[in-house]
Write a structure and sequence with these properties.
Order of helices and strands: EEH
Strand content: 5-15%
Radius of gyration: 13 Å
Number of strands: 2
Structural class: alpha+beta
Distance between the termini: 49 Å
Shape: globular
Strand order of the largest sheet: 1-2
Largest sheet: 2 strands, antiparallel
Amino acid sequence: MDRGKLANKKFTCGVCCMRGRVLDESKGIVWFGCDEKVCGKWYHFECLHRSEQEYLREIMEEGESWYCKACKPWLYCEE
């Protein structure tokens, strides 16, 4: 059974540094990857700061690219 099998190394959370598992999605663990070409970081939704989660929800609804706070911090500035 693949229950404990690690996924590709690219699925290492940029916040908690835990590596993803092959069956994460079936267990409700959601990953999001930064769309900045030079970044390549992935994140658990739960590990993101509230402002990042809100921005991610908006972007997903609009169907646009998502960029992490490390790549484009100005997207997360509160007015």
